[in-house]
Amino acid sequence: MMERLPEFVEARKAFHAELLTSTLTINSAGVVSNADGNNRASVLIAKGIADLLKAETQGERIAGQTSGNQFEGACARFVRTTFLKLGHLRPGI
Prior knowledge:
Blueprint: H1 5-23, H2 40-53, H3 64-83
């Protein structure tokens, strides 16, 4: 089972890289695109996530529908890449 770990680490790195190239940006005021700019807690949490992922992409926030679709697509690709490798954990298979 340990041989699977590198596959998941690489899949997670690819997922984060995809988010950092298009979806997760920081505007000129330092607010991360996944934050509610009017909510201090949201801004701080988003900044913490961006810091952990080492986000550096500067850009204004794209439309919520667009960023939501990008995020959903990235999540779907990550799940598709990793979930099927967990067959040994899923009952009935």
